[in-house]
Automatic annotation (TrEMBL):
<feature type="region of interest" description="Disordered">
    <location>
        <begin position="280"/>
        <end position="306"/>
    </location>
</feature>
<dbReference type="InterPro" id="IPR002509">
    <property type="entry name" value="NODB_dom"/>
</dbReference>
<dbReference type="InterPro" id="IPR050248">
    <property type="entry name" value="Polysacc_deacetylase_ArnD"/>
</dbReference>
<dbReference type="Pfam" id="PF01522">
    <property type="entry name" value="Polysacc_deac_1"/>
</dbReference>
<dbReference type="InterPro" id="IPR011330">
    <property type="entry name" value="Glyco_hydro/deAcase_b/a-brl"/>
</dbReference>
<protein>
    <submittedName>
        <fullName>Polysaccharide deacetylase</fullName>
    </submittedName>
</protein>
<feature type="domain" description="NodB homology">
    <location>
        <begin position="84"/>
        <end position="270"/>
    </location>
</feature>
């Protein structure tokens, strides 16, 4: 699967729609739509064709992925924490071919991180969960697979998060605290499910574009550095399951120098658990509808099947 970045501008919402060609990816995760304002109109036309009311209700929360707005208005969602700390996070693992190498380098650097795991990957390598936790790392929910949440209904979305949360809890004895949707794309169903499962959504403020076939340790550092500041959350990948083959080498090679740059700036580098996330409108989202979904957390009878 080719990695697709999260929505970072209004035009990008249209680029996710199947009837539109994809936009081009710019530095620091900005996607520039090819059609400009016409792309937004195209998105609206597609929405109307599929049933505007239901579709837009499902898609509107994805606007929270606008990086500049979310940083100011929703600091917890953006991953803004203590001004002297940078949260180090990895997506898409664990992968037996690559994650152990990241754990080795992190151990050499005396660093801990948060790993947003895919249920399918963790199910294939359950032994890595114990090693990660024993080393002081934190496991968080990325989903059962990497399909965008906007392409799922509420039940499927809930099942994705529930199954992954339960697997992490079973393997580590510790329920995860954080969740990040694939591609960083939110939906109403995702936020409702996260609320019910007591998971805090966290995106990122900087990434290394380490999933591309041309990524190198130098390009990762050059992409990260302009957005590197205290309180930020960094996104890298410890697996190439959704990336170009072997792309993870770029992030692995960049880690020692990235850690040194944080140290030179007087910044602590560590997991989200130590990040001191700032409160914001989505820190405690009140999105519960009336009826059964108002339950805070699942009952045994609500556990999804399969």
């Amino acid at each position: 699967m080719t990695y697709l970045p999260g929505i970072e501008d209004v035009e990008e919402a249209a680029s996710w729609w199947p009837t539109r060609p994809a936009g081009r990816v710019g530095r620091a995760g900005n996607v520039v739509g090819r059609a400009g304002n016409a792309g937004v109109a195209g998105f609206a036309r597609a929405a109307a064709g599929a049933g505007a009311a239901a579709l837009l209700t499902h898609a509107v929360p994805s606007v929270a992925a606008l990086r500049r707005l979310r940083t100011q208005l929703m600091p917890a969602l953006a991953g803004i924490g203590a001004p002297d700390h940078v949260a180090l996070t990895f997506d898409d693992g664990p992968d037996p071919a690559s994650t152990p190498l990241f754990l080795d380098v992190l151990a050499e650097l005396d660093l801990r991180a948060t790993f947003f795991v895919l249920g399918t990957m963790l199910e294939r390598a359950p032994h890595l969960a114990e090693r990660m936790v024993d080393a002081g790392h934190e496991l968080a929910v990325h989903g059962w697979d990497h399909r965008p949440m906007l392409l799922r209904g509420p039940r499927s979305t809930y099942r994705q998060l529930y199954r992954t949360r339960e697997l992490i809890t079973t393997l580590t004895g510790r329920p995860p605290r954080f969740v990040r949707p694939p591609h960083g794309i939110l939906s109403a169903g995702f936020l409702l499910a996260a609320r019910r499962l007591e998971l805090t959504p966290v995106l990122w403020t900087a990434w290394g574009r380490d999933w591309t076939s041309t990524a190198t340790p130098l390009t990762v550092l050059d992409t990260l550095t302009p957005d590197l500041r205290g309180g930020g959350t960094v996104l890298l990948h410890d697996s190439d399951c959704t990336s170009a083959p072997q792309a993870w080498h770029s992030a692995l090679g960049a880690l020692p120098e990235f850690a040194a740059r944080c140290h030179d700036r007087g910044l602590r580098l560590g997991p989200l658990a130590e990040h001191g996330l700032l409160p914001g409108p989505l820190a405690e989202p009140d999105l519960r509808p009336p009826g059964p979904l108002a339950t805070h957390g699942p009952r045994a009878s609500e556990a999804p099947v399969g």
